[in-house]
């Protein structure tokens, strides 16, 4: 099975040549490139050109709205799909099902959904959501149950602990029904993933920890009679040589203010997210010892909530590490890099061709081979199709050269 690769649209504070911090209840740090439609469109077009399948678009109080952002960017790109992150507690189930159908049908099937329950109660309350973490997972389970019922067609009513709808029927069934991407490291998250996820997502950890998660979710899903695919979310710093890649990691690290580390880490330690706790354990709030596994660097997580690790190395080294994760059962890789425009090309032109040669990846929309123009004298004795028969051969070419000579001005 060919691996799938997705990129990232930095609507969470913009983009730049340094780590743009924030997230998970922490305000975004400064950036050099605002998340305009023009700039996001450049990233989207670069991503689809080099072979990424989709682009994750984040959700949260520190982000632009993912639905609106991707709807606009879809109009300045061609085939790239959008992995739209959204929180089921902030939208009614029927409206979300309707929005997905509209998006899918108007873009020609370019929607994927990343369902996020929300790990920070204080942030959820900004949106008017006062359920605790376990309550949010229970509501998410109900939400996905009823939405999937509508997507199968027909009329559905539902009376749950958190949601209630009566005799609802969806006029526009999404075509195709968007895949559900879902992540979480808590026991409650595992239950929802086993019952509803098409792809279970984990943030980047060393392979042994990722293997444990895969075994955990695979068993839970099997108990429900289901199979789940697996994806991983990481950043990437890949260059022609490992030395160049680590020099870039060092540059990013040098640009992180120690005061910012202290402020962001204090905020992230208040997070209710089990996944965020695991990210903090990897970096320990220190600039030292951040290579936690060969070519796996935890420096991004010092000032950025959520995914905090990066694959760092030469193109071959990064390809090797991807294959190691693939052997564990990872099918899809959601990647990013600062800045996102340039790093889409670094990865797409450096790593993906290596994986293609190894039979691990195929371009989802291979570019058509360019037709080679044939010059007049491409082959000896071959007559150009644009020249009359009498012009073939040496005498004909001499005549053509004479006709192209500049003439003296008349008079």
What summary fits the major beta sheet?
8 strands, parallel, barrel
State mean pLDDT (0 to 100 scale): 89
What is the helix fraction of residues, given as a range? 40-55%
Distance between the termini: 75 Å
Strand order, biggest sheet?
1-2-3-4-7-8-9-14
The radius of gyration is 26 Å
CATH class type of the largest domain: Alpha Beta
Strand tally: 14
Question: Which SSEs are present, and which pair or pack?
Answer:
Elements: E1 4-8, H1 37-50, E2 54-57, H2 66-73, E3 81-86, H3 93-107, E4 111-115, H4 121-126, H5 133-151, E5 155-159, E6 164-169, E7 180-183, H6 187-196, E8 199-203, H7 207-223, E9 229-233, E10 235-239, H8 242-254, H9 258-268, H10 274-283, E11 291-293, E12 296-297, E13 310-314, H11 315-328, E14 332-334, H12 340-350, H13 352-357, H14 393-404
Parallel strand pairs: 1-2, 1-14, 2-3, 3-4, 4-7, 7-8, 8-9, 9-14, 10-13
Antiparallel strand pairs: 5-6, 11-12, 12-13
Helix pairs in contact: 1-12, 3-5, 5-6, 6-7
Structure write-up:
By secondary structure, the chain is an alpha/beta fold. The chain has 2 domains: 4-357, Alpha-Beta Barrel (TIM Barrel), CATH 3.20.20.30; 377-411, no CATH class. The chain contains 14 helices and 14 strands. Helix 3 (93-107) crosses helix 5 (133-151), helix 5 runs parallel beside helix 6 and helix 6 (187-196) crosses helix 7 (207-223). The radius of gyration is 26 Å and the shape is globular. The termini are far apart.
């Amino acid at each position: 099975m060919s691996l799938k690769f997705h990129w990232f649209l930095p609507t969470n504070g913009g983009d730049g040549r340094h780590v743009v911090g924030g997230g998970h209840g922490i305000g975004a740090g400064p950036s050099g490139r605002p998340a305009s439609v023009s700039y996001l469109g450049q990233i989207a077009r670069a991503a689809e050109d080099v072979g990424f399948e989709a682009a994750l678009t984040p959700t949260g109080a520190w982000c632009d709205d993912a639905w609106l952002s991707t709807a606009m960017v879809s109009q300045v790109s061609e085939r790239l799909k959008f992995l739209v992150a959204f929180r089921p507690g902030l939208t009614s189930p029927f409206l979300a099902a309707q929005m997905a159908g509209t998006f899918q049908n108007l873009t020609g099937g370019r929607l994927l959904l990343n369902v996020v329950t929300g790990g920070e109660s204080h942030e959820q309350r900004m949106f008017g959501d006062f359920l605790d973490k376990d309550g949010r997972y229970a509501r998410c389970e109900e939400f996905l149950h009823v939405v999937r019922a509508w997507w199968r067609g027909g009329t559905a009513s539902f009376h749950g602990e958190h949601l209630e709808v009566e005799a609802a029927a969806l006029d526009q069934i999404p075509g195709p029904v968007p895949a559900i991407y879902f992540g979480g490291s808590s026991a409650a998250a595992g239950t929802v993933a086993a019952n509803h996820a098409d792809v279970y997502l984990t943030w980047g950890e060393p392979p042994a920890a990722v293997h444990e998660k895969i075994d955990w979710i695979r068993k839970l899903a099997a108990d429900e009679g289901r199979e789940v695919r697996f994806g991983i979310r990481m950043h990437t710093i890949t260059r022609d040589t490992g030395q160049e890649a680590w020099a870039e990691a060092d540059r990013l690290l040098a640009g992180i203010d120690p005061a910012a580390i202290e402020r962001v880490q204090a905020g992230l330690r208040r997070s209710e997210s089990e996944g965020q706790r695991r990210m903090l354990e990897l970096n320990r709030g220190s600039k030292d010892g951040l290579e936690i596994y060969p070519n796996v660097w935890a420096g991004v997580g010092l000032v950025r909530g959520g995914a905090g690790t990066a694959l760092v190395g030469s193109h071959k080294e990064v390809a090797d590490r991807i294959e190691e994760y693939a052997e564990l059962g990872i099918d899809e890789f959601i990647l990013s890099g600062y800045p996102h425009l340039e790093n889409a090309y670094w990865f797409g032109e450096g790593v993906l061709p290596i994986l293609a040669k190894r039979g691990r990846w195929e371009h989802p929309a291979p570019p058509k081979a360019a037709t080679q123009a044939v010059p007049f004298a491409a082959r000896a004795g071959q007559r150009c199709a644009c020249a009359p028969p009498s012009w073939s051969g040496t005498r004909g070419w001499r005549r053509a050269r004479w006709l192209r000579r500049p003439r003296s001005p008349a008079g």
